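Late entry, written up from scratch paper. The run itself happened at the end of the previous shift, but nothing got recorded in the book at the time, so transcribing now.
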Amino acid sequence: MTEKEKMLAGDLYTADDPEIAADAARAARWMARYNAAAAASPAERHALLVEGLGAVGRGVTVRSPFHCDYGDNIRLGDGVFLNFGCVILDVVAVEIGAGTQIGPGVQILTADHPRDPAARAAMLEFGRPIRIGANVWIGGGALILPGVTIGDDAIVGAGSVVTRDVPAGATVAGNPARVLRA
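Output as recorded:
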């Protein structure tokens, strides 16, 4: 397997591989154009999103600045809203369901690192996919950690650190996020 194939499979890989580095550079150029187009028409911004991300539904809004690793692994359903300053580390799949609203400064982080110090010293990393359901509301500054699934209609309180799955319809908050209401 190539390093990129390992990355996409969630296996240990080295991020400084030339193919992966080229993908990251392409994404950086796309982000520079997208973030510079904050005053462009909604149609122009949507076209840029379609160019840079894996899948983009109708009526998606992503406010600048927006940052990601690669873009190709991000799938946004119809009507998704990402507010200013969102960061998505998409070394593996990130799926965000229709109608989900994500507050400013939210970080969605699929990238992870080995717990073994020797593997970490060898600059190995891996990813675990994140799935956020439909009609979810994630408050500003929340962190969604690798491998988490957030069910449909859930609410994540501002500033929460989501370390485990959130059931559909639940409200969670805190660090680590805990269910307040199911």
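Residues 47 and 152 are 27 Å apart (CA to CA).
(Scratch paper discarded after transcription.)
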